[in-house]
Each structure stands twice: as structure tokens, then as C-alpha cells.
Amino acid sequence: MKTINADQIPQIKLANGDFIPAIGMGTFGNDKYTPEEVSTAVYNAIKTGYRFFDGAAAYGNEQDIGNVYSRVINEGIVKRKDLYILSKVWNDMHGKGDVLVAVSKTLKDLQLDYLDAYLVHWPFPNGHAQGAGVNDRNPNARPFFIEEFMETWKQMERLADMGLVRHIGVSNMTIPKLDEMLPLCRIMPAFNEIEIHPAFQQWEMFEYCRSKGIVPIAYSPLGSAERPKRDTEAGDTAVMEMPELVKIGKNHGIHPALVCIKWAVQRGHIPVPFSVKQTEYCSNLAAVTEDPLTDEEMEIIRQADRNDRLIKGKVFLWPGAESWKNIWDLNNEIDRTGWTL
Ligand SMILES: NC(=O)c1ccc[n+]([C@@H]2O[C@H](COP(=O)([O-])OP(=O)(O)OC[C@H]3O[C@@H](n4cnc5c(N)ncnc54)[C@H](OP(=O)(O)O)[C@@H]3O)[C@@H](O)[C@H]2O)c1
Q: Where is the active site (predicted)?
């Protein structure tokens, strides 16, 4: 197994001066890979040199991954302080007092006494069961209301005060939602974890985050070809087949996946690619340490943007909302179709 010295992995400085590795590993098995397969990959990935892991209670594998964290620390492969471990509070735990309950369960499952980062997974309390289908909807789903969201965020701030989490952040937020949220924060979000890949580059959000000292974490950075059916639609871009990426990959003798990863790290957002295949996750990590893309290649990728959101989130729609577009505030104002508080 190829190993990368963790000191070679670029780091990104957060607003408070702390650092995070510029690439992580995703741990959502896409309803396809078992907790055992994912946690085995995490174990070997740590041996390979990965230090940052993107997890969530909703991925249903924190107990197995916790066994791995405990094992690598006990075996002396890595010290706790050298890992950057992120989890997320799921949508059914936004209520009063629930966030502390949720993080306590995650810490117990992961066998840790603190998390490096804890994010609000989605900005509304619209849970769905693991393995949800295309037409599954939660009858209690609701749109985003800042009053409700800040009740959740205040609980996140208290976790930071308590030392249970080092950094707090959000995920799947839009600019109109952040515009309402940020003036009300006592502790600013360190991260917004969102979909970013060459077919959905989100320049406006990227620049917005940077201007506010928020680091964008890119989920599905390779275009998530294996995503669950509930998040696919006819006509979606197959990112790995984009001719611009295939051509640049050929120039470097690498798979288009590695082009996506180099592009992400050179641009400055943090990719968290997922794979349980050792050759893939090893080469994903190695890609950020060698043979960078040229300025010209970076510009070709910039021009290749398709503005094509792949993870549409239909399963989170509330009664009254008709299209996945309602979730993403495409008219630059918060969409609450059919609802008032
Ligand atoms: N915050 C959120 O709401 C949210 C939403 C979605 C995802 N995420 C996070 O983002 C992570 C990654 O997202 P994702 O799994 O949707 O998408 P992704 O990382 O874009 O794509 C993963 C797929 O890419 C393939 N792959 C990986 N490395 C490769 C390589 N070197 N060469 C060729 N193919 C390669 C793998 O296919 P095979 O399986 O065929 O090997 C893998 O299943 C998740 O694990 C999760 O941590 C967060």
C-alpha cells in the first residue's frame, strides 16, 4: 500500500487560526457499501496518510468507524490530536435539547471525547430513513425558518463552549439563508459543506464563503456517480466523462477523478471524495502532493462549469413544495412555498 507522509498534505487555515487538511475522506456508503466496508477503508486510509474524515450520524456507520479510531490510536499509528474528525447532527435532532443528545451519541459511537468539527447536516428538520426511495417524503417536513434554525445553532454554540466540538459549521446552506443567519451568530460557522465539482462549481457561494471567513467543504467532489437513485435525474452530467477532464487527465496520465481533486485543492475548497477501494483512495490522496494542474488547465475547468446540481435533495421537500428547486432558493430569496411560521 502506497503511503503519503501526512506532513506533505496541504493544510487550510481557518478563521480562528487553526488548520485542517486540504483533503478528507468521505464516509457515506451511498446505501451501497456496508459499515464494515467503509470502516475498513477508514482504517487503511489512516495508514495511507489520511487525517481528515467527513462523517455523520445519518451514515449509520459511526460505531464501526469509532472502533477504527480507537484501534489506530491504541496501535500507535496516529495520535488523536493528529486526526481531524467531523460529524453532523441529523435533521431529526434539531429540537430543544436534542443537539447535545445527538453529539453525545456520536462521541460515544466514535469513542472520542471531542470532535474537531460538528455541522448542521441540513438547514431544516426534515429527516428521512436510511435507504429512502425516490418518492419518500416526510409528512412533517418544513421549509427553513431562521427562528427555528437559530434555536439549533445556539445549541451548536453551546457545544463549542463546552469543549465538546472545536469548530462548528453548516451544510447545504444557501446565500439567502446565510444572510439571515450570520448577523445572529455568536460563533460564526467555520464551514459550509456543499456540493462542488467541475460540473457544479458554485462560484458565487465559493466567493461568498471566502468573504465571510467560512471554508467551503466539497461533498460529492467527483460527481457522485454511485449516489442513491433518489438523487438522480435524466440528463444529469456524468462528471467523470466530461471531455475537458478526460483530456486534462490524459495530459497527466491520470483518471479524471484525480483531476477533480487537484482542481479542488488548488482552487481552495476541501474535497472529501469517497471510495472503499484502496487504489482509488490512495491515489486520491497522492494527487494533492504531486504534479499540479497548470493555470491554463485550471481555466479550462472553470470554463467547463455546467451549473448542474446533482444532489437535489428531493426527499427533503415539504408539503406544498413541488420541485427540488424550492430547497435551493434559486430566486435569491428563501423559498417557503406554501408555508408561514
Ligand atoms: N453534507 C452532505 O449533505 C453530503 C451529501 C453527500 C455526500 N457527502 C459527503 O461527501 C462524500 C463524498 O460524496 P459522494 O460519495 O456522494 O461522491 P464522490 O466522492 O463524488 O464519488 C464517489 C464515487 O467516486 C468513485 N471514485 C472515488 N475515487 C475514485 C478514483 N480515484 N477513480 C475512479 N473513481 C473513483 C467511487 O466509485 P466506486 O464506488 O465505483 O469505487 C465512489 O463511489 C460522502 O462520503 C460524504 O462524506 C455529504
A: 59
